[in-house]
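Trying the structure run again after the queue cleared.
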Amino acid sequence: MPLVTTDIMLSDAHENRYAIPAFNCENPEMIQAVIAAGEEMNAPVIIQTTPTTIRYASSELFAAVVAALAKKSSIPVALHLDHGDTYELASGALEAGYTSIMIDGSNLPFPENSAITKKVVDLCREAGIPVEGELGHVGGKEDDTVSGGSLYTDPDEAVRFVKETGVSFLAIGVGTAHGVYSARPVLNRELISILRDLLSVPLVLHGSSGLEDDVIRDCISRGISKVNIATDLRVAYTQAVRGFLKNDPDCFDPKKYGAAAREAVKEIAKSRITICGCQGRANSL
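Done. Tokens:
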């Protein structure tokens, strides 16, 4: 089927207290793996790319690959720009055919974050494309951006931010971090419940890789509707390639170790679909 927008998915997840997994994909094998996992689980999925991934290839290339695979798929697939950090990048992804855009101004002061987010929202509204904003920020390393620590989202600012910008959904800071956790994170899960009660838009959890399954489920039960998964996929892909070449060091066919990596990513994606509770939800959208 054609690519769908994320608001179609997230409105149902928000209403019915489950989440849509959003998978950061770096190459065609990872995209194939995620869509295959969704098909096996009859679940909607979001494919997303970050700025460095787009610089590695291009938004046009990723859009073409995802659209081609989605067209042959039986499940809803959306293509999302993750952590878009400039208006120009957001505009380019929109023009390339992305069906969801994130503009991340969370490292900016509130007025600047609100202003750039509203500018992207206004641009995308004409095309009927939803926009994710971020208030508070997630620690760790995401692409080229390194944050020293997490900044919790202020509830009063969140109400103001959503009203001023018109975002379709909101990434919030509750104590998670991007990348591999060096210590157990201290999450303010009650904050999710508070923001869910105050806001009408779906909430997004970044930095989920490495969190315990029951913690993610609790976050979803409190109001998270979109869960981002990046590091777990990268680790699975890389470990599978290393394992394959260790067992067959003379192999020089990328298709062979690529297939092994693809299978490993698919299994991780299936497990995250189960944790998010969206298995069997494809037919309801």
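The two ends are 12 Å apart (CA to CA). Worth checking whether this holds up in the mutant runs.
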